[in-house]
Specification:
quorum sensing; EC 2.3.1.184; Acyl_CoA_acyltransferase; alpha+beta; Aminopeptidase; 27% helix; 8-stranded mixed β-sheet; Autoind_synthase
Length: 211
């Protein structure tokens, strides 16, 4: 099951978040070579890990094996303040659009080839389920262009926001990916399980939404 942790509640999940930050460091610093993110304590934390961030954690036998972070586009996020050169059109902004960042899965749970591993399916399903519960239907992603076709095959409606550019040593493209129940059905069919992947579906306030 996927646990959703609001940025205002990370103190209640100190062990889970410590594991998540260390997983991020392993993936982005040690494996991908993003040395600018390196920290002496091997916990990758940045300026967007604030009260507005939403953390999604996948645990197996008490160990965090998968993680991702969602950021509201109505506040500063990667595309707006770190990688603005990736966007060559009007930047998508709105309460229904969040940015998907820091996706990390431990090596033993990644699977092989270009297929979607069970952990990746769980994490993507969590975004779609959470989005459908909270009025979010689109996410911004900065990713390897090789993922474009895969997202389309998973029934995301994908719109490139610019051409691929080199970030560090990697090719990265920014996209807006819209999802709906068809996306969730595809992910569930691939998983062979139509039950919810969320441990719970908390009432989450959407940044800027009218209450």
């Amino acid at each position: 099951m996927i646990e959703i942790i609001k940025g205002t509640e990370v103190g209640r999940y100190a062990d889970e978040m410590d594991q998540a930050y260390r997983l991020r460091h392993t993936v982005f610093v040690e494996e991908m070579g993003w040395t600018d993110l390196a920290k002496p304590d091997r916990r990758e934390i940045d300026q967007f890990d604030d009260e507005h961030a939403l953390h999604m954690i996948y645990r197996r036998d008490g160990e965090v094996v998968g993680y991702q972070r969602m950021l509201p586009t109505t506040r500063p996020h990667l595309l707006s303040h770190v990688l603005p050169e990736l966007c060559e059109v009007e930047r998508p902004v709105g309460d229904h659009i969040w940015e998907w960042t820091r996706y990390s899965v431990r090596k033993p749970f990644r699977g092989g080839g270009r297929g979607l591993s069970p952990a990746a399916n769980m994490l993507l399903s969590a975004i779609v389920e959470w989005g459908m519960d909270t009025g979010v239907d689109r996410m911004i992603i900065e990713m390897d262009p090789i993922w474009l076709l895969r997202l389309v095959q998973l029934h995301f409606l994908v719109e490139p926001l610019g051409i691929p550019r080199t970030v560090g040593s990697a090719s990265v493209v920014a996209v807006a990916a819209k999802f709906d129940r068809r996306t969730l059905t595809m992910l569930r069919d691939l998983r062979g399980d139509h039950r919810s992947v969320l441990r719970s579906t908390p009432e989450l306030e959407i940044e800027g939404a009218v209450s």
